[in-house]
Protein 1
Amino acid sequence: MSAPYYPPLSPLSTGLSCSCPRCGKGRLFEGFLTVRETCPSCGLDLKNEDSGDGPAVFIIFVLGGTVVPLALWFETLFEPPLWVHAVLWGAAVIGGTMALLRPLKAYTIALQYKHKTPHRPPGV
């Protein structure tokens, strides 16, 4: 009996769908950011997956590169009081972080799976 074949999947598609990097069907998270120990669909061992600080760094680059120019443009155009900036951009940063953290963590794990990081035994 041979092992099941899983065609290679795009890390971007599995990351955006927050699904298993091997089969693309099972859910990767069991909470908001807690990675499952195994994939419920294909049984891939996920307990050693660790994305580290990668997703946070991506979010800093994406949101910093987006929010700062928007805030400067908004200040130049409307000159609002400081509290408007604090409320508006604070909410934008918090909302953007919550929206991007899960898919970017899943994308980082999918990239690690695709490129076989050292903690993963060969052929798994």
Note: The mean pLDDT is 91.
Protein 2
Amino acid sequence: MSGTATGALDAGLLDDVLERARAVPPTSDFPTVDALLDWFAALAEDHPGLVRRRRVGTSRLGEPIEMFSVGDGPRPHLLFAGVHPNEPIGFRTLQHLAAELVADAGLRASTNATWHLVPCIDPDGTRLNESWFGDPSDRAAYARGFYRPAPSEQVEWTFPFAYKDAYFDDVIPETQALMRLIDELRPELMVSLHNAELGGVYYYLSEDLPDAVGPLHAVPAALGLPLDTGEPESPALERLAPAVYRAGSTRDEYDYLASLGLDAASLVGGEGSAAYARRHGTVTLIAELPYWSHPAADDAGETDADYVDVVRAKAESLVELGSTLTALLDEARPDLTLRSPFLRASESFVPMMTEAGTSELVRAGRLASRPATGAEVFSNQEVVRMFRLRFGGMLVRALAAEATAGLATARLHRVHAQARTLYDGWLADAQAVTGLEVLPIERLVGVQYGATLAMSHVLAARR
């Protein structure tokens, strides 16, 4: 692509961003925590004049959290990966960005920034996902090895929050480290490196920046990846443009849940990083990317299905999922002895399935009838498959931990067998979905890398 800039970004700069995004070298896996940190340590040792290494915090299990800074421009940019430890695309993105910044003085000069990179903000949680990092294309391995912390243990959603009847101040050490960095650096641009699972590319921005939309759309297009125009992650989100949403805040979620007549204070936790950084005028970018794509991800065509029925069907399935997992957890509970991360996560997420389904049932009752798009039908169905695999899988891991430790009673062995059988069926159902395409990791890295550079240039242009 040349001379085809979209949005207000200079055509030459956008062409350069797209060229760099397409030039990410092939890779087939994600690094373990040790491999990732060793790589960054070696980079700092090899380039002492360019890369500055600094410890910025400590994980709950005692792992040092480090930051590596490159460049000396007046524009502070802060990027951190592993904020959800089941989302490792950002590890490769930070490696590529750091390598390019070190090797290319022109890139450093063109952004005029100091790049502060935290390779892994949650090493404890990341280690519990490493079993599938060697072959992330294998959805079964991914699902069986999946781990996501309970919301109260997630870095992204444990910033302080006080609003109406809700109050949260149980900030975990990893989040405290990020808070210190945000307050110290006052970043102009912050990139929280997340990724999604299946579908297409979508973004979150902390501000409505119309000049950013064109470049953000151009990056995945240049790499042959679709946008995701289906159901947003939450009905509370504000859509700024196709596949671009305003970064969600817990305040928005609270007001949305309260509008449904639900007890919002009991359903929300901490605030997110974007809302916290806003006090410094920081613009936050989040690029959500799937491991697998599907032709329906950006299918805007109308279907025969009514949107109300699509949302209601999802809601009923989520309520059923919550009921099924709650029954298993309740049967096992008297004999559970290990407060493993998998059990803590299960105890948080299992009731959330019922709550999410209930709120969606209320919403469905207020929606107007209209044809659903292909993307909406697919994304609503897929979220049920995803939650079954995620939260059913973590409950199986919680029960397996008891058996592996030699602590499982006869009742726990029986519940474990029931859960495994149920889970195998859910996995087979997910594997039966046709049309999935495994996306090359380098293209996913290219989107995060290109979107970050594009945002840096967009913000520079408005100074």
Note: Residues 374-404 form the longest helix (31 residues).
